[in-house]
Design brief:
Two copies of one chain form a homodimer. Chain A folds into four domains: 86 residues, 2-Layer Sandwich (Uridine Diphospho-n-acetylenolpyruvylglucosamine Reductase, domain 2); 119 residues, Uridine Diphospho-n-acetylenolpyruvylglucosamine Reductase, domain 3, CATH 3.30.465; 109 residues, Alpha-Beta Plaits (2-Layer Sandwich), CATH 3.30.70; 76 residues, Alpha-Beta Plaits, CATH 3.30.70. In chain A, 34% of the residues lie in helices and 21% in strands. Chain A is built from 16 helices and 18 strands.
């Protein structure tokens, strides 16, 4: 779009020359995320604080320029890709942990703080910030809130939503307002704070986030369990959750195991095994109790082929790192990936795993799955070579079949990645017209000009109300 | 308001003659709740199921008749009082636990199910539904969701909001739609489900609720701790939460103790003591560990005057029942009560307790406090005789001072009761005009005719957008 010269001048006066990006080569860097989408904005600003962000947004929307908030660009659904151009607001400089309140178990942070930095800062006070997306070492808390990010620890500790107490934000008319309360409880007026969680930048830009923390577990135990078949591992998920609540209960099918085999203990990862990674945490005494309960249970299960416990914290971290490296390792199979974070009721994990493998065989492309089995949230990886038309078509077909099956199973097409660009055309399969109409009405109430991250979530945008 | 005769006929055809209430004496019963407000509706329907509720709402709104959902009428803020007349929809017959899914830790219930009935049904499957408002033996889950109800166990287990997975509801245009997912995770589209939690019947009428359950704790330990001063007890709250996370951490000031003294162990409740009721739960081994940690900690605190542990489950229940009976016992002090459920960051509990007592002395009326200290959520009881003009005025003044102080402390005017009628004029003190404007915009998007429980939450209604 055509950006008026006066607007550039005004923005420069707010953020300073160095924090206004107008160079085309540089702007390309603000046009992508971890999906394959790419669309450069017309300009980008990097405000130093909430006041600058507020002023920049106000000027942009007054001029009818779309506003697209951007954290680390680590999203996988194109959520921060500015497909309609306009102004990207990078939160890269708003990366300060403003305060940790150890007595009230709270953190106040700017939206550009990296997830793991809050974890480290909380740990210094004996506290813990649980949400742990695989990108935790580079993704931002603002992006986590915008997508409603989850991670392996959700099975015990919940997702980002469960930790957001209050949000300060800039609305589509450029006004600044806070929602929620730092207190442990609060029901004064509508829960706008939780409505904003997962709204993917389409309703507001966050300028400050208040997050709850929990006491830090001081002990852990990490197990790797192998089975002869993916079905065997999947069948163990619901029964394990009957006897204990692990911090993580991660599944890898045989293909996933094969991909990261070099990083896993020999013997366990051999010969076509599927795996469960089981993590327990708490204080040392309660972890000992949980270990005993888990061992007693697993001893009697015929599915269990091998069981190994990480002997040291370093070994435990290696196992977790191997699990996290799966995403990158998947490209050994094919150069392009369709990665979907579908969710089903956890008792349906075995059925989903069977279906995924059947679909890969049927369409003759590599399809494998791993993920947060304890939550019923699996990452299904459909590996294709985009340059091969047959594979491209088979990939699209596999994806469609997957979503349809998951919805038929009472599941959802996205557990933690969000809708963004890549799932918006499938949203109407999950959410009926009446529900989409309510969402469109909310979008319109917040952003009548459709300037906040336009073109996301809704299948047609601006959405029909 | 004038109800067209044709409307009555249509409603009778839907719910049957026996479930349409038009008799004036009977309608008076649908006009009150546990507040002192009373305003009879023009008619009431008692639908048998979601289909009947949907049809009844559709006909009412088509005729411009306000719709006011009603659970047990146990709210204390006038939330279900039909101040603009219209049609009450009683959920009394929609009281079925539709299904408990023990493998996925889920319950599907109709909105009229009583909180404690779900607790009992879940227990049969080794599961637990934690939210525990004091009215748990008669309040309904629909009302709990509508108000965002909490209770003592929130300090460990969270509030109603944390358990609502999905809601089926009827909207203001009479359409029926579901929001949320039964799965453990889900971020497809805006989180309308959580927006509806705490919306007090102003956005939609619930026809079915899907709730998460957790594994049932199999052991508990209940302690009563006495201190010489209210301040002494309040000072212990934050430090206790540093060493353990109890299931409940309830506070009673000296007046509260005096009121229920007959039901508490001798010695502890004597001589001007303030109390903390501390409950631990888990399996027997972890409870034993927590007990040891708690005892080790309390041994070194000078505030502790006495400490007694309930020897049997019956004794534990007696202590909890004594705590729950406080609300009724308060009328020994004066015939009328102003009961506010304010919240502050928990480290400010001592300051709040001091302020509450100071205010009572200053205004020469009985003011006492007890409640969920672990959450920073105190029930402040301002006892007056309404027939006494000085006391009435002092009560109003105490209330105003309380809210102002709480907001200045970074707190909120309602932690779990809701706004309803009785707090709506104070909402603008906590929520700025921009925030109220966003809420009004949402109300208008859902309910342009302002027919869903009109006159609630917003200080002026229909709210200006």
């Amino acid at each position: 779009m055509k950006i008026p010269r006066g607007l550039q001048r005004e923005l420069k006066a707010i953020v300073g020359r160095d924090n206004l990006v107008i160079d085309r080569d540089l702007l390309a860097l603000y046009g992508s995320d971890a999906s394959t989408r790419n669309s450069a904005p017309d300009l980008a600003v990097i405000p130093a604080n909430g006041d600058e962000a507020e002023q920049a947004v106000r000027i942009a929307v007054k001029n009818g320029v779309p506003v697209v908030p951007r954290g680390a660009g680590s999203g996988v659904c194109g959520g921060c890709v500015p497909i309609r151009g306009g102004m990207v607001v990078s939160l890269a400089r708003m990366n300060r942990i403003i305060a940790i309140d150890p007595e009230n178990h709270l953190a106040r942070v700017s939206p550009g703080v990296i997830n793991n930095e809050l974890k480290l800062a909380a740990a210094e006070h004996g506290l813990f910030y649980p949400p742990d997306p695989a990108s935790l070492k580079f993704c931002t808390l603002g992006g986590n809130v915008a997508t409603g990010a989850g991670g392996p620890s959700a099975v015990k500790y919940g997702v980002t939503r469960d930790y957001v107490r209050a949000l300060d934000c800039v609305l589509a008319d450029g006004s600044r307002v806070g929602f929620g309360t730092a207190c442990a409880k609060g029901v004064a007026g509508y829960d706008i704070c939780r409505l904003l969680v997962g709204s993917e930048g389409t309703l507001a830009l966050f300028t400050e986030i208040t997050l709850a923390l929990v006491p830090r577990p001081t002990a852990e135990a990490v197990f790797l369990l192998s089975t002869n078949s993916a079905r065997g591992a999947a069948d163990l998920v619901a029964p394990i959750l009957r006897v204990t609540t692990p911090r993580a209960l991660e599944f890898m099918d045989q293909t996933a195991v094969e991909l990261v085999k070099d990083r896993l203990p020999l013997g366990l990862a051999d010969q076509g095994a599927a795996l469960l990674l089981i993590e327990l945490d708490g204080d040392s005494e309660t972890v000992a109790i949980q270990k005993r309960i888990l061992n007693d249970f697993l001893r009697h299960r015929p599915e269990v082929k091998g069981l190994s416990e990480a002997a040291t914290p370093e070994e435990a971290e290696e196992l977790r790192a191997a699990r996290r490296s799966l995403s990158a390792a998947s490209f050994k199979l094919n150069p392009d990936k369709i990665n979907e974070d579908v969710v089903v009721p956890r008792t349906k994990i075995p059925e989903l795993v069977d279906f995924v493998h059947h679909t890969g065989r049927e369409l003759a492309i590599p399809v494998f799955t791993f993920g947060h089995a304890g939550d019923g949230n699996l990452h299904v990886n459909i590996m294709i070579d985009k340059k091969n038309p047959r594979q491209r078509e088979a990939g699209a077909e596999a994806r469609k079949k997957l979503f349809r099956r998951v919805i038929a199973m009472g599941g959802t097409i996205t557990g933690e990645h969000g809708v963004g660009l890549s799932k918006r055309k499938f949203l109407p399969e999950e959410i009926p017209p009446t529900g989409l109409g309510v969402m469109a009405g909310i979008k319109k109430a917040f952003d009548p000009g459709n300037l906040m991250n336009p073109g996301k979530i809704f299948p047609d945008s601006p959405p029909a109300v």
